[in-house]
Amino acid sequence: MTGTSSRRIPEAYRAARGLSGDVLRVLQKKGNATIGTINPDGTVHMAPVWFLFDESGLIYFECNSATRKARNIEANRTGSVLVKGKAVDGSGMVVLGQGTARIIKGDMARVICARIREKYLTASGIDPVSAYLDSIDDAVAELSPVSWVGWNSQIINDSLHALAQNVGRNFDEWLLPDCD
């Protein structure tokens, strides 16, 4: 057999495709996204950003046109986004989008930047933060995902908790504490 074998991805690692309700919930919440672009040498460049998920299904983030992410988008017109959040049931959710991208400048970029900032800033923060960001950001990247994947950790979490119960243990005692 050539190519992929008959091995199947375990149920716990399978992801839902498309813009499900849980995926939309994560994309509409306030949080950071990680943007991925392709460097000239083929490696991946990743950067954390504030983002806006538009009702039309587009992702926007502001940037400076001289940055690596902006230059990568201008060079190969592709990008990806990763956003972490919570599903309706409270379980962890990771959302991935991949597609085409472009850089927007001028008046349209300023309008989109204002929309992004309104998502994150209070009324008292808009003016001072915008004055600073306007001095360094001259562009907006627009990502038009052609595919969406949402991975929910509930199946694997339930399985691990059941495993702990089956051996008479508390799952939490198996985990090291978070580092601060």
Low-confidence stretches: none
- Major beta-sheet overview: 8 strands, antiparallel
Instruction: Let me know the CATH homologous superfamily.
Output: Electron Transport, Fmn-binding Protein, Chain A
> Helix- and strand-based class?
alpha+beta
CATH topology group: Pnp Oxidase, Chain A
* Share in helix: 25-40%
Mean pLDDT rating: 87
Care to describe what's here?
This protein is α+β, with helices and mostly antiparallel strands and 180 residues long. The chain has one domain: Pnp Oxidase, Chain A. The chain is 32% helix and 33% strand. The protein contains 5 helices and 8 strands, in the order E-H-E-E-E-E-H-E-E-H-H-E-H. Helix 3 crosses helix 4. It is globular. The model has no long low-confidence stretch (mean pLDDT 87).
Q: Which labels suit this protein?
A:
single chain, globular, about 30% helix, Pnp Oxidase, Chain A, alpha+beta, about 180 residues, 8 strands, eight-stranded antiparallel β-sheet
List the helices and strands and how they pair.
Elements: E1 16-17, H1 21-28, E2 32-38, E3 44-50, E4 52-53, E5 59-63, H2 68-76, E6 78-86, E7 92-105, H3 107-120, H4 123-136, E8 139-152, H5 154-166
Antiparallel strand pairs: 1-8, 2-3, 2-6, 4-5, 5-8, 6-7, 7-8
Helix pairs in contact: 3-4
Task: Give the structure's gist in a few sentences.
This protein is 32% helix and 33% strand. The chain has helices spanning 21-28, 68-76, 107-120, 123-136, 154-166, and strands at residues 16-17, 32-38, 44-50, 52-53, 59-63, 78-86, 92-105, 139-152. Strand 6 (78-86) and strand 7 (92-105) form a beta hairpin.
